[in-house]
Every structure is written in structure tokens, then in C-alpha cells.
């Protein structure tokens, strides 16, 4: 990401939002994402799921892996009491500097601690640096290839405790399949999916899964699935009343277990899926 992009976003925020008003800054960043250029943050629509997770857990300590330009940490700060410790790690100094400036403008800079470092180097020092034994809530949204290794590092160090809730964005697209397999194939985890849209996109619909660790920790995940998987899930979700036709469709390489809003599970493995439909017509993307 170029310096000019960061500068353009920052200038837009400073010009169009109210000083000291976190909600105004959040809304302005969302406006930029919708009207100027899509941003690689959780966005306003997926952000509501993050908000709900925070409200459910009511954490006192929060860790974010991947600050980017400060949107998610700002959003989390807006949802939590002022005495909540929020630590966020960002490897890019320019992105961290932009995030700091945005946090200052929003009036929350004193509530968000930005660590500029690589996550696997920073994580081992967090307990002493911030005088914490563990984190109540963890949001993962950085380099996808580091999801699993950082997750295991957090486990091994003990920063994930009984009741810790973890939200991981974009686990299917761009993709963190090793993280998905680790969490979903562990018998101690259970997962549910919630429908949403890709950040700053009204048309690309995908499923957001919530995986829960049944014994010691609670894990929530969010993802942007591949278009085929997204549309297949959406079709299944909307056609549960009756079944007249079953088709087999080639899928992407990922194996996912979906669950609709009413709790009905739809399981499929990688490569192929059986889809139940309420009529005899295939959807356009299933033809051919």
C-alpha cells in the first residue's frame, strides 16, 4: 500500500469527521471505503458482528493482530469502557503512524496501545510489557499465512485463557486454510456461520462463521469465502422449506460446515457438495 493512499485516507478523515468523536471518524472511514476506495479492514457490515462479539464478551483486555490504519481498534474502543486495555500490533511503521493519527483525531489514542513489530516477535513480550496474564478478546486480521502460527504461539504462551474470544477475519478469502483446519478439526471447537457481505461491497455475499471452543476458550471467526462457496451457502440458507432436486457441484479446495440462522446445519467436504433446492431449476452459477 502506497504512502499516497494512507495520506489520502487520513486527509479525508481529518476533513470530514468531527474532532474527538470516534463514531464520526468510524463513519467517515466507512464513507471513504464506500465512495472513494475499498479498504482492507473489517468494514461497517462485518463490523456489526465484531461489535456483537465484544458486547457478548465484555472484555477487559483486547489484543489485535494487524492494526492496518486503525479502523478495527478504533471500532473496538468505541464499543468498550474507557478502562479496557486495547493492544494492537502492526508491522508497517507508516500504517501504524496513520493509525495513531486517526486515533488521536478520534480522541482514543490514550486507550489504544500500538506495538510496531512483527507479531511473532511482539507476542512473547506482551504479558510483561502490558502486565497481563492473558487476553479476554483477540482479533486476528493480519498476514493470513501467520494466523495459525500466531494462534498457537498465543496458546503456548498462555495468552489465551478459559473464556477468551477470538475473531479471525478473511479465513477463507484471501484464506488461512491451515488455521481453519486447526480450529475446525479440533473436537473441542464448534462453529456456526452468519451471513454478511464483503467489506464495502453490496453484492458479494459470504458466510461469517463463529467457532466456539467448548472447554477452555471461545473462538469466533469471520471470513470472506470464495464467490462459489458464498453463493452456494446463501442458496442453501434460503431454501430449507422443501427439497425436490439434489445437485452435485464442484467446490473450491476448502471444506466448510455451514449453519443457518435457525440452527440447521449444512455440511460439505471439499471438492463436492450436495445441494438441496426447492425447485427444478439450477441457479445460473450452477449451470454448465
TrEMBL record:
Gene Ontology biological process terms in this record:
catecholamine metabolic process; methylation
**Major enzyme class:** transferase
Molecular function as annotated in GO: catechol O-methyltransferase activity
Keyword annotations of the record: Catecholamine metabolism, Methyltransferase, Neurotransmitter degradation, S-adenosyl-L-methionine, Transferase
**EC annotation from Swiss-Prot or TrEMBL:** 2.1.1.6
Q: Which InterPro entries match?
A: SAM-dependent_MTases_sf, SAM_O-MeTrfase
Task: Describe the family membership recorded for this protein in Swiss-Prot or TrEMBL.
Answer: Belongs to the class I-like SAM-binding methyltransferase superfamily. Cation-dependent O-methyltransferase family.
What name does the UniProt record give this protein? catechol O-methyltransferase
Q: Which organism is it from?
A: Rotaria sordida
